[in-house]
Amino acid sequence: MDARLNLFENTLGKFMKRLVSAGLVAGASSVPASTLLLMEIRASQINGCGFCTDMHTKDATAAGETPVRLNLVAAWREATVFTDAERAALELAEEGTRIADSAGGVSDEVWANAAKHYDEDQLGALVSLIAAINAFNRLNVIVRQPAGSYQPGQFAAGY
What we know:
By secondary structure, the chain is mostly helical. It has a single domain (about 10-145), classed as AhpD-like (Up-down Bundle), CATH 1.20.1290.10. About 65% of the residues lie in helices and about 0% in strands. It is built from seven helices and no strands. It has helices at about 10-25, 35-45, 50-60, 65-70, 85-95, 110-115, 120-145. The radius of gyration is 15 Å and the shape is globular. The two termini are about 20 Å apart. This is Carboxymuconolactone decarboxylase family protein.
């Protein structure tokens, strides 16, 4: 399977570089990196983005995340392996990803639950991560970016 368009060349490549820069904001926050990766995985699963699911699952594994937790991300509500803070972040990621499914977008209840676990700067990081991963997912799905060949840290030095 080949991508319809090269994500790293032409106008799209310029956009990707800027999106990558914007995505660094969440990673520089005090939100645990493991929480951010779990959110990226969950949003990518919802959006059907194989490339991002592959990437963030491999990065999480390389960072020490357990197979049990990774295998249960899609079923986090029924799983006992996530903290209350992680569960609040996953719920925010889901509602922020599925905004078209609800006339009100992210519910007040979900927001209040996240606010119990994260301060304003951290909430800003969570929202920016949700926006960025959804943009990445859409790019990859639209161009049909193939999944499976990503190596952990592959884009650490940029592209």
